[in-house]
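Task: encode each sequence below as structure tokens.

Item 1
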Amino acid sequence: MKHLRLILIALFLTASLRLVPMPLSDTVRHGFLATLVLLSGINGRLRLNIGFARRILPLVACLVFASLFDLMFREFGFYSMLIWAQFLSGLFVANTVYALRPDDMRRLLLLCVGILILQGIYLKLAPDSFAARGAAIGITDSFTLYGVSLKRFYFAYFQPNSAAYAIFYMLICWFVTGQKTRIPRLQFISVALILVTFVILTQSRGAILLLAGFLPAWYLSFRSSAAVTFVAVGGLLGLAILPLSEAFRALWLLREGSNAERLAALGDYFELILANPLNGLGTDAIVRRTEDIGLTPSQVFFVELLGTYGVVFGGFIVAYLVYALILRPAPLPMRVAGLFGISVSLFNNTLMTTWAFFPLLVPVMMTTWPRRSSGFPDPVHRRAGHSAPEPATPKPGTPASP
């Protein structure tokens, strides 16, 4: 049952069910799979992990109050229910991931890497078949909208940006898990290189930028807090101002229309926030406004969150995520991981419904909370990608060492 549970979670995280054309939406597919994940860990009985439920309660309560506000004073319709269905699917899987041991988390990530490799082989050997699968469920290559024939590397998402951010979360969790369990040096480096390669192949601008900042920031975080601050800021902002390679510059300039639309959308959303600062417009009103006047998504989660829920509910959600993933973890490397995990919100407007954020990153990061007073591995284990050996627990009746 444990192996089945890990396989189901890996399928959820890699969105592999989209490879099979079915008359079901993504939300229904993943809701069904998330329910199977939940049942696989509890012998067929609905039972939530109390520890995870307690830690995630503030965020869930905030969203419940925001939804009640919409229900009483605005509109609670199809899109509001869609967001809740996706959010609950993520929480069901996160509830199970949170209960995994470090070794099982490592096996889960290895399974994800294996699935991604198989998808990559499928795409390489049978691209027409892969594209036909996407067309069968109504998915086309959005990149052709910019008049460019460049083929971007797809996975079962049929959306390279979604795949890129999910794989980026897998990379972060791999590094975090490497500090909690013994991972052989060769395996640690090999998996990291594979995930880095897949992120680059997706050609997602935001994911590549975050990747360029995360890797050196994580390495320097063991040595100097000043250095990691410098690298983090440089990684998040430096590439946008002065690209480090002609390839990245060309990739960015190929989509000038996309860049211009995002900047214009940011201005529109700031106007919405200023017009409705306290409580926002609500989920359905935001979507309806988009359909009525053609408002382009800003692709910035925090901006759209404030426009949807206002500074009261939206501001609390932002504050909670910053606390849970950056301020609460004690070791600096964990804070680096949380920083770059949340920073995806600068390039993705659906952070809470991304298939790997709550199902994978949030529970993995939260498992580090009880270790605030514990030290990090010694430099030898850090360099090897291992965690330090756990101190031996004395047998009952045996005095502890001084």
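Item 2
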Amino acid sequence: MIKTAGEIEALLALLDDTDVSVSIPVTERLTALGEPAVRVLEQQWEQTDNQLLQTRIENIILRIQHNTIKKDLKDWTDCRSDQLIYGAYLIARTQYPDLRFSEIDTVIEKLRAEIWLEMNNRLTAMEKVGVINHFLFNVHGYNRSVRGVQSPQLYLVNHVLDTHKGLPVTLAIIYAELAERLNLPIYCVNLPHNFLLCYKDISYRDDPDGIMFYINPYSRGSIIGRGEVEQFLKEQKSDVKPEYMRPVSNNETIIRLTEGLRFAYAASMMEEKAVFLEELIVLLKKNGPDHIL
């Protein structure tokens, strides 16, 4: 805890010491002070021409940001994992540490309100999905990106909401979040080599898992059946396992998102970011629930 603003200033005065027995404890203390120290560190960075001091400040700020994301992500797995979009927001902060959740929530809520006005209880499940598809893909122009899985930006939900271009997992997260806010039983399906959604109704008896149909967000929300999903798996030379066809927890969805982003960072030669994403994956797998919806 920071007792006085002067504590940070006193520590900063020692941060450029070439004696590591001084600089290392100072670095550890400033890192431990956390977010309250960031603004003062940024101001000091702007005011100095000392490159050693600037580099050490940059490293401390990065460590503080990483620690904050880890803490927030653990809190999400413990208490807020029912909020899928919030998990995606936390992963986006690996690239945009100053991103505010309200920026994402406002866009999602505006979309929800437009769709809700066209919904009513007389619509069938497919008709309700058709309403979402119309607004998301026709009115607002959300679509697949041609840039491919090696582009880190396509895994960042704020970027997808800004550009309306995404990958299967990010488009599915936005779609599933809208469905959740509209009280529709649409869930993510973590398919190998793809990422789908399903419409699940426990009263539906024609499917062992109560899944009425699947939705492909990467194909403008096209509706497909279990047989088509099984055929896709066979074409990809994947085993047709029952668990592949079922909805997954929000935690598993965010793991898939984070794994994709880690791959993109590594492919883009951003090794430090890839290493940090691996740490987040370990955290998610250790702390998050793995139950099936």
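Check on item 2: The first helix runs from residue 5 to 14. The chain has a mean pLDDT of 91.
End of task.
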